[in-house]
């Protein structure tokens, strides 16, 4: 008997409650051959993904983070059917990704920050039309969908521009539109904001938040940018050397690793170190013209620290240093599991 989920994924999940992604003891290793002498070659096995189990429900927004080489891209490739697992299982939208890659592509959109899915020499709008045709969208529906994405992502004046002439921020908005033309249930983003300026990052995030709400789309993203996670993800999975090191919310993760924020203030005049209750003074520069304060975001806000500084000295300028993902991950890795 055939598995109904393979014959028709719609029948397998009539009420839309089945997990969108499910992996059980998922593993993928690579054999790497290295020259160890003039003639001899040695073999080494890299366990890129080393037994990960997780379920992601429809509509969830999940950040998949970890240090360089932790196994993020390898997992994403298995989820999207680019790589076959060495062992264990993965189901995406109720399908087995590699053998059902074509059917899966109708339900999944993928954006790789480092790789383009657009036709480089063609005007941007041609890529949208080609993708709509590949996905078999009826002409009227395709035109309507493309127009909506173009409006929301502010791509109107770029439609006739060849992709190779677009700025990185413009191209990334184009990539996201291209990944969404066929209204996927799952959007997978691999470093979507890498290299973008602050404003472009924020525009992209705002669009993704709105689109997710509109379409109840599931989001899975890898990123090295903490603000992507803060703004976009309700849940964080941290992978460490191919294994899952954390599964939970970002605030809980921040508490677990005792994450602190740092406020840097520039004063009008030099000042001895300022003392603020409940806040740690972590350094002065330029005779106290610049002072740094560390605080726990769950007990104190940056505005409270600033107000307390303002009572004692006049402030010229300020910056808030965001903890970066590398710090969080490194702290988590050092903790006993
Ligand atoms: N095709 C391959 N052949 C050999 N080794 C590989 C291959 N792909 C990945 N690896 C190795 O597997 C490990 C995990 O790589 P992966 O690309 O999944 O990490 P990542 O978490 O995505 O890293 P980054 O943040 O740098 O993109 C690394 O040690 C990498 O060198």
Which descriptor suits the 3D outline? globular
- First-last Cα distance: 44 Å
List of distinct ligands in this structure: adenosine-5'-triphosphate
Structural class comes to: alpha/beta
Q: What's the Cα radius of gyration?
A: 24 Å
Q: Count of DSSP helices?
A: 12
CATH H-level homologous superfamily name of the largest domain: P-loop containing nucleotide triphosphate hydrolases
Strand line-up of the largest beta sheet: 5-6-7-3-8-9
The stretches of 5 or more residues where confidence is low (pLDDT under 50) are 1-11
Q: What CATH architecture of the largest domain do you see?
A: 3-Layer(aba) Sandwich
If you average the pLDDT, what whole number results? Answer: 88
The percent of residues in helical segments reads: 25-40%
For this structure, what is the CATH class of the largest domain? Alpha Beta
Largest sheet: 6 strands, mixed
The CATH topology of the largest domain, please? Rossmann fold
Strand fraction band?
25-35%
State the total count of DSSP E strands.
Answer: 13
Indicate how many domains the architecture comprises.
2
Q: Provide the succession of SSEs.
A: HHEEEHEHEHHHEHEHEEHEEEHEH
Topology:
Blueprint: H1 4-7, H2 9-12, E1 21-35, E2 41-56, E3 61-65, H3 72-79, E4 87-92, H4 101-105, E5 108-112, H5 124-134, H6 139-152, H7 168-180, E6 186-190, H8 198-215, E7 218-222, H9 226-232, E8 235-240, E9 243-248, H10 250-256, E10 261-267, E11 280-285, E12 290-295, H11 302-312, E13 315-321, H12 325-334
Parallel strand pairs: 3-7, 3-8, 5-6, 6-7
Antiparallel strand pairs: 1-2, 1-4, 8-9, 10-12, 10-13, 11-12
Bound molecules: adenosine-5'-triphosphate.
